[in-house]
Amino acid sequence: MKFFLRLVSLFLWFWAFIFTMAGVLVVIQTNYYIGPIFIFLIIISIFIYLGIYLWKKSMKYNKTIDQGETAAERFERESEISGSKARQQKLNDTIELDILKGSDVEMVKALNCPNCAAALNPKENHCEYCGTSLYQK
């Protein structure tokens, strides 16, 4: 959809250029008569406005929208990637839920790795992003 909107936008800008050139020729041939000038200005303005509008609309589309992927599906997919913000958020949410449920999760001073600052799962004894051991001696 993004490609289609940009293609139509470029097509409209092309026709705006063609009408500009045609308008210049008509104005010169009619000895600068004011009537055709306004007609061509209106047509050119419409083409340029629509071209800009469609280009801006195409900017709102991204690859996941074109694929029909919902925000929840994208979050789940991204939460499987090590080091991603979605993964860190999912781990933090899981830790908060465990604490709220009253499980025997040990509280730590920080929930981030001292080496890479990634979100930590207190049930693990190493950072799953950089592999740093979390045991204190």
Could you please describe the fold and organization of this structure?
With 137 residues, the protein is mainly alpha-helical. It is 61% helix and 0% strand. It has 5 helices and no strands. Helix 1 (2-29) packs antiparallel against helix 2 (34-59).
Q: What is the CA-CA span between the terminal residues?
A: 57 Å
Mean of residue pLDDT? 75
Number of DSSP helical runs: 5
Fraction in helix: 55-70%
Shape: rod-shaped
| Radius of gyration over C-alpha positions, nearest whole angstrom | 29 Å
Topology:
Blueprint: H1 2-29, H2 34-59, H3 63-67, H4 71-78, H5 85-100
Helix pairs in contact: 1-2
Sum up the structure in keywords.
5 helices; 137 residues; 61% helix; mainly alpha
In short:
This protein is 61% helix and 0% strand.
